[in-house]
Amino acid sequence: MLNIILCGAPGSGKGTQSELIVKKYGLQHLSTGDVLRAEIAKGSELGKQIDALISQGNLVPDDMMYGVIENYISSLPADCKGTIFDGYPRTVSQAESLTRLLKKYGMEAVMIDLLVDEQLLIQRLIERGKVSGRADDNLNTIRHRIAVYHNQTEPIAHYYLHHGNYVAVNGNHCVDDVFLQIERILDK
Description:
Elements: E1 2-8, H1 14-25, E2 28-31, H2 32-42, H3 45-55, H4 62-74, E3 82-86, H5 92-104, E4 110-115, H6 118-132, H7 139-153, H8 155-162, E5 166-170, H9 175-187
Parallel strand pairs: 1-3, 1-4, 2-3, 4-5
């Protein structure tokens, strides 16, 4: 089973590359936001707790996220080829939990880190904002989001590097060239 943690700063192309990977390799795409909304829609006790937190603007704590991710993994179809994790893990603690959880089910994951120069990230996000009208794609917010990424999420790359499950991809190129690099990694 092929499990991928696709990581990169805002504007690195994670969403675009996830779509291409899903299309070519037939993987499940785990979007944390989608899974949380599904859990709330089920009306389960966990879903009610999550709804109460989110409706007050709070983040879902790590232990609750673990439960949500475990529910997802345990319900994967028998013929599942693997998963792309999108939006999880975001911290080293979550990476450690995910490693333990996957091991429990006889699985592991590799992190593919899309590395893009900061100036190019800013340029991409400003262009995206012009096309999409996303309010969070303005220079001040972009710089803040990139800083948050460096402080909170980037350290998980070191975790996976230390565990031998890390591959860097040069994300400074066009979509097709970046995907070609990812294909070379996945086809091994």
